[in-house]
């Protein structure tokens, strides 16, 4: 009589995936139960989009183009910047969520449980990226409703645009996770992550860098959002992107690496 085979023991990778999936569901459940923070952060780019299009659109388009007022041209110009600003606003909620976990004792509880150590961070990161994608889709729907069109972009350019958005979301999320971990409370985390909303305001999101004062141009040019916005704008409108694409990719990779190692070092630090 043959002896029944013992069930295969789960591997380290399968356990990590299982625990990360559990933490992802936990974070998505929290976002569903407490949507006020996400909605508040999402309203900011939508309000700015409507404000700049319907209040300043004619004037801004005339100033940028040097010709007559054409609101449709300014919609095409401003939407890519608003989309990336949406990601920056969404990850502020991630910083607050991570800080809440770090300061309210749940992390200490997780440390005593038989779960993969990195699954807590991975759950926050993947959940934030998914929320960023959903937020971008919502803002994009509003942009289309008010007149944004991307008729000249090819399918390959659309695919590249989606990949760029995913890279930006991943990079900003890792930075936000690090900010949340070093913040003493949720309010501090929100303040520490504020540059992720402010930087797009001083980039090429609303006006070209060449139209800014000379002393201010380096501030707008040498930051991560400007090459990402210019690349996304070129991809969505089917125009040239020049050297902006590799600058955007380099910024995303650098910020992702910085945020990852920063978050990992803080999370693995022994609690005081």
Automatic annotation (TrEMBL):
InterPro entries linked to this entry: ABC2_TM (IPR013525), ABC2_TM_bact-type (IPR047817), ABC_2_transport (IPR000412), Nod_factor_ABC_transporter (IPR051784)
Segments traversing the membrane: 34-54, 74-99, 120-146, 158-182, 194-216, 245-263
Membrane topology classification: Multi-pass membrane protein
Subcellular location: Cell membrane; Membrane
Main subcellular localisation: membrane
Sorted UniProt keywords: Antibiotic resistance, Cell membrane, Membrane, Transmembrane, Transmembrane helix, Transport
Domain ABC transmembrane type-2: 36-270
Pfam short name (any one): ABC2_membrane
UniProt record similarity statement: Belongs to the ABC-2 integral membrane protein family.
Name this protein carries in UniProt: Transport permease protein
Taxonomy of the source species: Bacteria, Bacillati, Actinomycetota, Actinomycetes, Kitasatosporales
